[in-house]
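Example 3.2
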Amino acid sequence: MKVYLLYPQKEWLNPEPYFDEKAIVQDLGLKTLFLAAAKEVVKEDGKVKRIREADLYLEETMKKVVMVPVEAEEILYRQEILRDCLQEENFIRSLYELACDILDQWDRLGRRAGRKAGEGSPRVLVTKIHVLQLFVTGLSRLKRLLEEYGGKHYSRGFLALQGRLQEEFSDGMERTLKKILQDVAFYANEKEHTESVNAPMENRPRILAGCSVGDGLKLCHFRLQDVATDSRKYQSSGGNFLERAQEYLGIRGKNVVYVNRDASLGGQTDLLEYTGVEYIVSCCEPFFKAFEKFFDQLRFQAAFYRGAVNLRAYLERFQLPYCYPAAGSGDCLKFRELKEFVMSIEQKMTPVGNTCDIEGKSLLVVTGANQGGKSTFLRSVGIAQVMFQCGLMVAAEHFESGVFPFFFTHFTRREDSAMNSGRLDEELGRMSQIIDHLGQNSMILLNESFASTTEKEGSVIAYDIVRALTEAGVKVLTVTHLLSFARKVYQEALQDPDFGAVFLSAQRMEGGRRTYKMIAHAPELTSFGLDLYDEVIGGGGADGNRVGQSS
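Structure, written as tokens:
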């Protein structure tokens, strides 16, 4: 039985994440996002009453799923399911909690000890009966849950899951399994609290005896069938599980069991009872194997959508717009009122939104004053791109982008005391690794890269690398203080219509006031020191007159 809530035709089998996912998580602050997804916001009368402690499993699941990009059709598939979940939050909560409950009970029954540990003992048989009961109960609950919300689901994922469950756990199979469990319940009830429960069944039978199975699996009408010098195995008549189980239920007198040749029949009651019940439970083995991994997958895949519901609560709490992004062509990137989601969670505020259209352009260069929101803007794009590529909603009124499975970040890092080489060497080393892992449909975000050396040297390095990347078809978004580099690519863009580039600057109003808006603008000075000079010494403010002046 397959879940298929993350992919249309496959389960989650630990696919490859982004290259250097650790750097992406660090640069974009995604730990905050994962943690928020793991916390449920409890509301009363539309107001936040409390935030529950983080569910560590949710947190880890969100990290795994978010950091694996998927294709455009898979994004759309997840968005359909997400719409169902956001429309009916109680459903996805119940689905996730059901899977967690079943697995918790299974763990208490000793799942982690391994299925083969202690094979051949009554205790193992009792455990198998309990696990079988757990699976049947869990699947019955799941069927009822899907039926309850069936008329409210429109996604392919949930409709297909309901159909598969009805086919592979039909009403007829459900009734048969419950009848079997009813018949073997006596064994679990009797043996569970007796001293003999741990006794191994080491003596394999040497006399083949026939018997009938009465009500409650009580054995009767014994008849000697054969005496053998070697052990013999019971050979089933074949057929699938359901046929075998129905045979057991309908023709009880044809079951056979084993006893020891050198012992009296009366002394073999426990062995006869054990063998009869073991055979009946073994008929259910195919059913167990069919659903053995189902609940693990159900919990994992439901956790992703459960986390998405929690994220929606944060979007609403801070009055952020959100949308289901559209997958465009490979050179597409445009958005309206995009906001930095992580910052809103950390600072409990509503950040300024930005609008931009870079469709058909390979390069975006952002310059301007320090503390003007440039890095925040770049992070907002990166966060949105990652959320889009795993099927989540995005904090924007509109977001459309190509799918870039080769996604990279290269942000400036603080000096590390443990670093054996200089910062520039470290930056170049990271860039070299990124270049080695580029592929078709690549995007890279550069935040103040190569600023650890002189402006002149850094500009040369930045220009050579950025031009090589864009010529290779990589979409490059860079925030830079390297004015010589920015001006050079700006002049090339003016002279070469085929050189697709967009230039933005952090907006400043009269007096130097920051709006944290990125506007179309030629590369400009970025020195915060000059702003202070104007304010303290010059008696004026940055009014934009310096645009185009040298640094």
